[in-house]
Amino acid sequence: MTADENIVVHLIDGTYELFRHFYGLRRVTGAEGADKPMGAVAGVLGTVVQMLEQGATHIGVATDHVIESFRNDLWPGYKTGDGIEPALWAQFHPLEEALAALGVATWAMVELEADDALASAARLAAQDERVGKVCIWTPDKDLAQCVVGTRVVQMDRRSGQIRDADGVRAKFGVSPEHIADYLAIVGDSADGYPGLKGWGPKTAARLIERYGRLEDFPAESLGENRELALLFKTLATLRTDAPLFSNVDEIRWRGPTPTFAAVAERLGDARLSARVVKLQNS
User: Fold this and answer.
1) pLDDT of res. 5
2) Which residues contact 114 (CB under 8 A, 6 or more apart)?
3) What does the pLDDT read at residue 4?
4) Starting from the edge strand earliest in sequence, which strands make up the sheet with 161-163, in order?
5) How much is the pTM?
6) Phi then psi for 8, rounded to 5 degrees?
7) Is the dihedral of CA 197, 198, 202, 204 positive or negative?
8) Cα-atom radius of gyration of the chain, to the nearest Å?
9) Alpha-carbon separation of residue 167 from 103, 146, 161, 254 (angstroms)
10) Contacts 24+ apart (CB under 8 A), 161-164
11) How many C-beta neighbours within 10 Å does residue 228 have?
């Protein structure tokens, strides 16, 4: 095996990480600390730099540039940017700019969502025979549909769990390929669709185990809910066709841009620049 084989690709949900650091700062320091301009951006960059320090070589970060997508046209209650605190919202685009300055592949999504970018990147990376593992860093339930055996796994930084296909089945009662069917039935409050009224996780898992895809359910099992369930499945199904890169080498970290030191200084964390310089010289 050569040095270029058995690559580990890390795909990060930048929007989730921004929320995590923003509210994490608030818990630790109170509103004043969390609302410090660019505090959450600095936190996300610190996490990415730490991954590089721990040996990560191939990293891509997906973000929601506008917090809306084609799904908002399909379901009026689908998530939007409404209600996001101004101090948090003000850090969305600076995060993308700071990641680009760090030299990390960054996908700012407009028509699609960050989750679609992660799903697309996972598919593209897994097509490369040199890739031994793809790690998707997000706890979002819908990304479980991208898990493949032990090669494409979901990393939950919050709980410390690594979820492979067996882990997905243990958590949801269905295989990764049926996560969209499962979410269509039980709903996903984070994305703003309710699922089918009166249908719980156990019922959903039992019916999926028996019939498979929603499209293959007997007509009487879903009844008048069939069209609604299929709509929710469309909302839950992640797109995997975003043309993010043509070769996994494109997401290999090769060092920061010349502007990174100035970016780190604006973020109020000059140590980031020193850590990145050390990485670059190692």
Assistant:
1) 72
2) 13, 14, 15, 16, 62, 63, 64, 107
3) 54
4) 105-109, 58-64, 7-13, 131-137, 152-156, 161-163
5) 0.94
6) -105, 120
7) negative
8) 20
9) 33, 13, 9, 33
10) 162/135
11) 17
CB atoms within 10 A of CB 4: 10
- In 3D space, the residue among 267, 271, 273 whose CA is nearest the CA of residue 39 turns out to be 267
Question: What DSSP element (H or E) covers 63?
Answer: strand 58-64
How is residue 241 written in tokens?
């066709």
Lookup result for tokens 């970060």:
61
How many other C-beta atoms can be found within 10 angstroms of the C-beta atom of residue 43?
22
**Shortest CA distance to 231 belongs to which of 79, 35, 53, 75?**
75
DSSP-derived letter for residue 239 is P
Tokens of 45: 């960059």
Residue with tokens 């969209």: 180
Q: Which secondary-structure segment (H or E) carries 154?
A: strand 152-156
Residue type, 231: L
**Residues 216-267: tens digit of each pLDDT:** 999 899 999 999 999 999 999 999 999 999 999 999 999 999 999 999 999 9
Domains of the chain: 7-138+244-274 (3.40.50.1010), 172-236 (1.10.150.20)
SS3 156: strand
In the chain, which stretches have pLDDT less than 50? 1-3
- The total number of residues shown for the chain amounts to 282
pLDDT at residue 1, rounded to an integer: 36
10 Å Cβ neighbour count for 90? 15
Please count the helices (runs of H) and the strands (runs of E) in the chain. 13, 6
